[in-house]
Amino acid sequence: MKTWLDKWEPENEEFWENTGSKIAWKTLTITTLSLILSFASWFLMSVIAVKLPGLGFGFSKDQLFWLAAIPGLAAGILRIIHTFILPIFGTRHVVAWATLIKLIPVIGIGFAVMDVNTPFWVFAVLAFACGFGGGDFSSYMPSTSLFFPKRLKGTALGIQAGIGNFGVSLAQFVTPLILSVSIYGTASVFTSIDAKETLSVFQNSTIEKQKEVFTDLDAEVQTKILANVKKPVLDSVTAAVNSSDNAIIFAALPLKVKSKAIANANPKLAEKILNKISPDNGAVQNKDIYIQSAAFWFIPFLLILSVISWFYLKSIPMHSSIKEQMDIFKNKHTWYCTITYMMTFGTFAGLSAAFPLMIKFLYGDFPNAPDPLVYAFYGPLIGSASRIAFGFVADKVGGAILTTITGIGILAGAVILVTQGLVSPTSMDQFPLFVGVILAMFFFTGIGNAGTFRQYPIIFAENQRQAAGVIGWTAAIAAFGPFIFSKLIGNNITINGTVNQFFIGLIVFTILATIINWWFYNRRGCERPS
């Protein structure tokens, strides 16, 4: 089959009307559908990770955040590769093979979650493979930029990126729904622990019984449970009882602290403890789920789209070696654009990956704790929708002003999260405002994502090949967002039980990025108005 088009002149009105428009919009449709699955598979592990403890996997809090972070690390690396392969292999080959290769993480995760003895390193490898989906963006978007004339670039890129971003919400929305559907394999028992009922168990049992059950546990398990207690409290009780015996320390803990430590333990472990203390307790809740279905449902769609991509896509004749493409790094605006896109898309992708685990570990130990997946998909959904809507706005008013507005919005959200104690909560009463502020930040990231991708083709208007390269490069660096957010947020929660320090850092970075955008691209008389 013929891969390369004979010529491509989108700025030629006659060519565009007679030939180019049909090909460009067909290409946009196919690659956007593929990009939806790219984003969905990229964030698959962050959705799965929330459910692993309840299935019996003994992964620590830090390990779960690693599983959410690794796809971002992989995507950043793979996007750098995707940035340079488009002019070499062309749209048809890149998209078809990139779609097919995502079967590796999808099939792998489906089988891995069915066996609770699957080691952490296997999940880590599969999490890295999820990065295949994240890497696609840096070749798909430059491809779209080349297919459309300047007057439609903002619209086309906004549509593709916005609808593609819906893949994040798709993964987080479909997962809870499909867990009851058997595609392949048997059901797994998912265990959850009700914090309020756990407290009731301890209130209605004797300290002697609690101590007896705790004494029967392995020393390593005892230490893990006590690690759920805040250090000042643990140190105070240890000093009061004047003993290093874990069972004595546990028995002496305040009732609420004790029940909270058990409720925060691995659900399967907590189930055994609670059932021994009170066999008829109402704290343990079990249900059958098909966790593997959350991965297996991708398979037919990936196969269909890889075939469609191979037979219906063409490539623009723009051959360029990797060495020739490296000239983008000599331009200072490549680096300024990298910073601004890290602020917009880096924040969008980072929050998308970390949001479910933030809900679980910041608010999950309060009575009537929320299910993270009930809320998680709203953020990416809002960010994706605003990116689409403001793609059209960016074509009318320019992208720079939208990027500046985004910086102000993200900054305001981060300040509220810190000053109102929303990321160091003391009760569930703070949860609605926490979710509202995070969703507002998602909304602003969508505006900024539309604005920045309108800016870059204009900033690099003298060389559209460079413009496509910068789009790929900035997207590659911003793809590290999930890794940065998940790891730093996870570290903050593990060490301090809050995320204040991370969001203070985000405030500083957002101020820097907003000033750069305003100075070079937005203010009157700026160097490259866009």
From TrEMBL:
User: What's its membrane topology?
Assistant: Multi-pass membrane protein
Chief site of localization: membrane
TM region positions: 28-52, 64-82, 94-114, 120-141, 162-184, 289-313, 334-355, 375-393, 400-419, 431-450, 470-490, 502-521
Extract the InterPro entries matched here.
Answer: MFS_trans_sf, Mg_transptr_MgtE_intracell_dom, NO3_transporter
Q: Return the GO cellular component terms, semicolon-separated.
A: membrane
One molecular function GO term is: nitrate transmembrane transporter activity
> Where in the cell?
Membrane
> The Magnesium transporter MgtE intracellular domain covers which part of the protein?
186-274
Q: Does the keyword Ribonucleoprotein apply?
A: no
UniProt KW keywords: Membrane, Transmembrane, Transmembrane helix
Q: Which superkingdom, per the lineage?
A: Bacteria
Coiled coil is among the record's keywords: no
> This protein is called what?
MFS transporter
The top of its lineage is:
Bacteria, Pseudomonadati, Bacteroidota, Flavobacteriia, Flavobacteriales
